[in-house]
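Dear U.,

For the methods section draft, I wanted the exact inputs and outputs in one place so we can describe them consistently. I've listed the two proteins in the order they'll appear in the manuscript figures. Please don't edit the token lines directly; just add comments below if something needs changing.

First protein:
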Amino acid sequence: MVSYQDWLSFWKICFSPTLMPSCFGYPLSIFFIVINEFCERFSYYGMRAVLVLYFKYFLHWDDNLSTAIYHTFVALCYLTPILGAIIADSWLGKFKTIISLSIVYTIGQAIMAVSSINDMTDYNRDGTPDNIPLHIGLSMIGLILIAFGTGGIKPCVSAFGGDQFEEEQEKQRNRFFSLFYLSVNAGSLLSTIITPILRGKLTSVGLLMQVPSVLT
């Protein structure tokens, strides 16, 4: 059975600047980093765009509670980068922090997707979940994991990408950062455009909440 340490060793070899094959003069690893960042941003902002709707129309919360929980979640996402930086600098390093917290983030998105499945507790098949506390519990667990995951890797990914270049690749490194932040903004922009469009086509807010998790 392949252990966690075996996977870490494999990925360290894959992302080693001295061993990584190049593509168009760039380390091949940076293309994976850019694509992963695009998908992560699309997933995060797509979920966030419909989060209040999910609270109001699926969990049946009022406006005040929905707004309070939404802003608490957003604040936590921007607070956890401090924790991620501490973990990376003092304990695991950038690579292990990214891998570990990406797994946490993926689990969180999966739990959010599961929590929005209406039929999971719709025992009488009337189109309304019958066990709202279960969906609330799963949603809160999912949001906490997402906040720790997306925030924890935030201070590490761009620095890790920069580490993939040799000293003499200053020009390629500068272009990488431009491409990296383009992917961040492109994922955010497209998700906030596409998700509301899907809102008009999908009748279920729960189903709409599951869409962003596809790119996790």
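Second protein (the one for the lower panel):
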Amino acid sequence: MNKRREYSTDKTLQSIGQADKDNLNQLPKLTPFDCKVLMKPALHENAESNSGLDVASENTDYRMVVSVNNSEHLTQPVRMEESSPDPPFEETYKNLFDSLTGTPQKNFLELSAVEECELPLIDLNQLNLGDSERQACKKQIAEASQEWGFFQVINHGISREVLGKMREEQVKLFKKPFHEKTNHKDLNFSAGSYRWGTPSATCLKQLSWSEAFHVSLSDVLGSGGRNSLRSIMEQFAVVVSELSQKLVDILAEEMGEKSGFFKETCLPSTCYLRLNRYPPCPIHPQMFGIMPHTDSDFITVLHQDHIGGLQLVKDGKWFAVKPNQDALIINIGDLFQAWSNNVYKSVEHRVVANPMNERYSAAYFFCPSYDTVIQSGVQPCVYRSFSFGEYRKQVQQDVKIFGHKIGLPRFLLQTH
């Protein structure tokens, strides 16, 4: 049985879920960047971020700032110590903080108690045992993906040494002065890999108090160990890719579908790795580390620290996920929900800021090539067929117009 206890979080968003078909008829009436509209799930574009991609997982781009001089960024003077690793949130979004005077409730979220839950925990070592244990493990994976859209795995085959080294290099990277991270020329990542904040925010409810490196694996594969960060990122990506492939194959098999589709379309070079840092937030708990969103990939594999802050929707309510440093968190993305014809669930989730402690996580987004067509073999189909590239483009258009991702409801067949 999953244990639950009280935890701090947001009350007003408890009733907000993923947009449904009925919402689509109302979209033309929405006012771009209206504060109420923007409280809906924010863009989570694996790679569809400012540079163009969403599995923003904690899987992708949440329309974060690419650099302090970005034209989308609020034009406030930046005053901070050059040696500080923290992005200049308060200086850059000064007008949003100034608007608090006299009307705090208008700008902040009202918070209430949220229960803490332990996600379903699955021991993958069962896959190496007898047939009955193996089948029971596969069934657990499928059931958790249907009922929760999230689960944890232990004995996953990724060594503590690799995970520890990955975290060590991640911390070193984010401890660099902010101005060095905005350049990151020595890392040889694609332009726009570094993001922070929310350039489209019109009130503090919409500001994500975090920074991230959202990196295409094509930037790090075959790096040949040119530096310790790129070397461990490649090692991490290779083993997590193998885990992802194993899990999607099991989920396909449990539906009675062939798993060759994922081997052919989801290559290491088409996937993404996102390194996240959530600085301490002095105005907690009225801030999000990352706004509510769903992921736009097939599955996401998350390695997080002990701080906590990840929350998800279950049965229409928000729950705080209890950290387990011995486990990796797996969640279903939009593409798998469409491919499975709603058998597996892509669940809305978010990160709540912490007032005292910084938080680190690393998310791997299992994505296909842009020309991959997503079509369910289950009849009758809930969604029309679409390519991953088309999905990304639609997400980007909706975010630009409405300030948030619409996602799968855009692709519902008229009969649903």
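Candidate sentences for the figure legend, describing the second protein: Residues 228-254 form the longest helix (27 residues). Residues 1-79 have pLDDT under 50 and may be disordered.

Thanks,
Y.
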